[in-house]
Amino acid sequence: MTSSSEGEILQANQVIRERWKIKLKIGGGGFGEIYEAIDLQNHGERVAMKVESSKATKQVLKMEVAVLRRLQGKRHACKFYGCGRNDKFNYLVMSLQGKNLADLRRESPKQSFSLSTAIRIGLQILNAIQEIHSIGFLHRDIKPSNFAMGRTNATCKMVFMLDFGLARQYLNAKGEIRSPRSAAGFRGTVRYAAVSAHKNKEMGRQDDLWSLFYMLVEFLQGSLPWRKIKDKDEVGRVKEEMNLNVLLDGCPRELHDFALYLKTLSYPDEPSYGLLENNLRNIIVRHGISTDEPYDWEINYENLGPKVRLNGAVPTRNRSHTTALKDRLVEDKNKGLDTQAPITMGEEDDEHDHTGHHIKFSEKEAHDKPKYKRQEFMRPKYGAVNFDVIDAVNARLAAAAASTSGTADIFSKLRIETSLDNEEKKAGDVEVTFRIPLRTSKTIESHEKSNRQAKRHKTAPPNAIEKSSKSNRSLTVIITFIFKIFEK
Description:
Mean pLDDT: 75
Region (Disordered): 346-371, 441-468
CATH superfamily of the domain at 99-302: Transferase(Phosphotransferase) domain 1
Strand order of the largest sheet: 1-2-3-4-6-5
Binding site for ATP: 50
CATH class of the domain at 99-302: Mainly Alpha
CATH architecture of the domain at 99-302: Orthogonal Bundle
Keywords: ATP-binding, Kinase, Nucleotide-binding, Serine/threonine-protein kinase, Transferase
């Protein structure tokens, strides 16, 4: 996000047509510039204004306006507010959305999405592609940065298609497929373009779907094999010769079928969107994914403190459990309750010294060290990392894990980004991993039985949990905190 400055088409606080007040520039490229603006005639609603110079050699806003107008009423289309032109620039005003998928993927800990997030997002993108095809247009630049999540509470789980500057009408006025050109020229983005685009062939509906396929692979793998290849033709050759088994290593087998089906299609063919949708839904069913799980970026704890943000977590399989955990944390903090519980460390767990190296306890030290220990992780060069919030999170995770019957995947990786004293220059990362032992149903049953026996004989119950944990050490929740450390 950048602020307006000299040399840009519009300036901050400039008012267009007595309605749109420019706030700041939020993007730009070869097509022109994008600004966040305020609708003065609609209660100050925040909108996006796309602008191109009237002197630009290649103008694309006319196509954008035509496509967006026809898409109105479609689920994955931005709302069209208006358009206009003067002697200096052309503009298009539409609803303002949240972060695009490219940024969200790059911000994730491994630059990839969980299977749950990738496939559910993929389904929405598939539907968005079907919507633009249904009005007779191809997008021809399907890529993560051209899809954004909604900004409001009502739309934050929805994906919106952006940027129709390279769109092309594939139907004529009679609703017939236009004859393909012998040489069409390359259109799209090299990383995600279909092989036919690399060969300068006329692109069809299947080519938008090939781009979706490459997006799904990148979402799951974190990158594509040709990411660092600069030559467009070489990328095309790699894509054409790539063995699907190699490309899809570790991916659901349904993606292999997805690609094989696309290979059967040619320019005039209408894809079976339903077949492809069922293909992706089979992944959801086979892996037990819930359609209302939070997306990877939705699990955050921004309310816990001004300097701490949790995001990028792989979603849990129990959304209500996660939500309740978060609510209890916030509620306890607001009430001023002590949420700084110690971190539970198993006897076999490693700890860290102040340099970041692992300390392996000897058998005697492991036996003598306290059962509960709070980590004070220090880096002398950058100062201390405050663990107050981490302790609060850990206390609730431990409580949740203790009440769960052997479900080892309740919680996955959590990520905390913290800036110290509002310093903005990145200095490095610190990673700390904790393991929380789980109570299995067998352990809980044994513990309850011991309590009943103790009450009957009026004796103190043995610590069944502690005893049984020695034989159930493999059942743990592993939580990794990644700290972004900043220096002046």
